[in-house]
Amino acid sequence: MPDIQMRFHRDIVIVDGAMGTMLQREGVCMDECAEYLNILDPEIILSIHRRYIMAGAMCITTNTFGASRAKLASYDLADNVREINTAGVAIARAAGAMHVLADVGPCGLLLEPLGEATFEQVYDQYFEQVSILAAAGPDAILIETMTDIADARCAVLAAKAACDLPVFVSCAFMANGRMELSGTDPATAAVILEAVGADVVGMNCGSGPEHLLPLAERMAKATNLPLIVQPNAGIPTLNRRGETVFPGTADQMLMYAERFKACGVQFIGSCCGSTPAFTGALYAVLGGRDVVRRARVRTDAASIVRIASPRTVVEIGSGRKTCVIGERINPTGKADLSAELVKGKMSLVRKLAEVQEATGADCIDINVGVAALDENIALRSAVMALTGLINAPLVLDTTDPVALESALRVYPGRALINSVNGDPASYEKVFPLARRYGAAVLVLALDENGIPATLEGRLGIVERVRIAAHEAGLKDNDLIFDPLTMATATDTDAPELTVRTVRALHERGLASVLGVSNVSHGLPSRSHLNSSFASLAIKAGLSAAIVNPNHELMMDVLRLSEYEKEDEAFEVCIRDWQATLKQVLDNASRNPAGKPHYIDKITSKIDRETKGVQGAIKDAILCGDAASMPSLISKAILEGMEQNLIIETVLTSTLIELGAAFERGDAFLPQLILAAQAMKAAVKFLKTLHPTDNDVPVDGDAAESANPPATRGKVIFCTVKGDIHSIGKDICIAMLESQGIEVIDLGVDVSAERIIQAARENQGSIICLSALMTTTLPAMGETVRAVYDALACYRPDHREGADAQLAVFVGGAVVTEQWADSVGAHYSANAPQCAEAVLAMFANGQG
């Protein structure tokens, strides 16, 4: 008995025909359980198998099509599931078949949301039946006549878990070329089923050869897997006696045999209405002939990543249009969405998805990370709410492996996982899930050490993750790499490094993706800068962009921009971007008079001419004029102003006013950074002076004091484990240091253990934790709890501990005051508020 896998892509294999039709001819009533005949009358089943073998069948399918526990239960035979399936394989083997295909039909339960059965219930049905069949010794498992891609996918997952036999999957398509329940076309079905491990894909039942031929041709263009086709003997009709009649003949099947061969079909048989005569006709024309070599589908090309919904395939990579991934289903900054998710409602999720798809999104990112929400339930619910609603494939945006697997199980497509990074702790749990459930993975070019500041560093992470992915059974066409878009407001060189990394990935044949809007974080004129950056990235070779598809300018850029092949022309594009960036930054921070245009919008509106040196200091801070600080501070002291009052009445008040301007949108991150640097310069100069020294040179050349004034307090600052964003943390640190506070910066992606150790080494400190991603809120909560368990802290939700020296603050774009309250932490909304709150706590004796 040859190994059936050894024949893949070699010779044509003839499969048998209908069992039900033959049983009808033998006088068996179709109201009976046909599979029970394996026990009651095995000779009749054996006889039919032998007739097909004599006609030329090389593969015999077992009489177990309806032998799942759920289907047998309708005949009160659920307890006979093992006996019936085992006997089915034994009879086929006894008939002398060259190959035995253990037949598995739809299990009899309808998956939610179309039915009431859960994924787990349906999975268990298939797992049980396949386990029993595999133990009986067939050559392969044949899952056939599937009308719902979710059901077919579930069956494959169960079969691959239950045995190591080859798994054939055959779907039934209606006259419109789609599966009845899921609306899936042949090409999409092939992509989804291949992703979850099917070894052979194809079609059966539904209609005759004339209808299946064009569908087989479409499927052949979508996969390199062997194909199986088993047409009906035409479309059935009812005769005058109410009997089902199939009009097709063996001669008609013969007419299409060569055409099926020409499109690359390897396993060919017949289905409902057929007899051994059909098998004989196929064998006469195709028996012993070689499979036609199909033009290879570039499914294994590293540059093409395919993701799919039940009705649509999206190809991402070289030579394809830039894929638009809609980013709007994210509760960050959306109180209405957060509120709905907490209540378990999906109305707004549905609306956001529909609008994004209507405005041009190719895929939809789903992020349901809300504080105090069970993401496991919420993400799964969101996936089920959108699966039947939209055609765009889904991007599952979570770092929670439990929630991820729950969503992957029920999504009847090939999802994109967002995301993992170069830290083994990040990808070691996700890669096996991607492999098992047939998902692609978005990989961030960072690791446990942070984001590399060089092209070589980011490419090094890419290569390490590629190797790990390959070892986990994934290929390059399962991976999309994100070189990371950093905020221009804090590093004007960062965008250029990002696009050069994109270009390097493109040259290596790897797909890339960027979250475009990060580039303009904290700046005005965001739409213009985002669009310019997106255009540059596409010219560099960008494969996909995570954007808001409701922005017309961005969508126009994504549609019209093209890859720039010539390196010299690309360098011109870089220079054009640099000019655009300079203009945006200049407009953001300066008006024609050379001063920040937001100064006059600040509430207190100090008259700098009448306020003298205090007004001049404030003016210099708002202009970011750090160089003038020594001379202005010196002048203020010579005029009799005490050093501590300079910090308290000038620097701190300016900080508060600047924070209010930032909240109103009158000031932006560049201004906060510049102002913080100027204030920091002022504090640094003040520390060089003796508290009673009034003889200060105006030029600021003060000597170091042997006993400089003490700092106002000490803060331990970091971004929590799993989050690598540093912009918010860095601005807060600059603000804190500008107020004379010593800051111990632990960096990003910091564990609770490191934080606790730092707190023990720096008694009397305040801990500030930052997070920018909803997916890292659980880590922030765990960190707060770990600190509280390990150290005595002043908690806002407890009266006890009010005399403790340690306090924990949380903040960041995704953190709300309500969430902070839920974990018992102090809260600040932005950098100025953070500095103000910390100062107040130090003043009250905490820290």
What's the arrangement of secondary structure elements?
Layout: E1 13-14, H1 20-25, H2 37-40, H3 42-55, E2 59-61, H4 69-73, H5 81-94, E3 99-104, H6 119-135, E4 140-146, H7 149-162, E5 167-171, H8 186-195, E6 200-204, H9 209-220, E7 227-230, E8 237-238, E9 244-245, H10 250-262, E10 267-268, H11 276-286, E11 304-308, E12 313-317, E13 323-329, H12 335-343, H13 347-358, E14 363-366, H14 375-387, E15 394-397, H15 401-410, E16 416-420, H16 424-427, H17 430-437, E17 440-444, H18 455-471, E18 479-482, H19 494-507, E19 511-515, H20 526-540, E20 544-547, H21 552-560, H22 567-589, H23 608-611, H24 613-622, H25 629-638, H26 643-664, H27 669-687, E21 714-720, H28 727-738, E22 742-750, H29 752-761, E23 766-770, H30 777-790, E24 807-811, H31 817-823, E25 826-827, H32 831-843
Parallel strand pairs: 1-10, 2-3, 3-4, 4-5, 5-6, 6-7, 7-10, 13-14, 13-20, 14-15, 15-16, 16-17, 17-18, 18-19, 19-20, 21-22, 21-23, 23-24, 24-25
Antiparallel strand pairs: 8-9, 11-12
Helix pairs in contact: 3-5, 3-11, 5-6, 6-7, 8-9, 9-10, 10-11, 14-15, 15-17, 19-20, 20-21, 20-22, 24-25, 24-26, 26-27, 26-32, 27-28, 28-32, 29-30
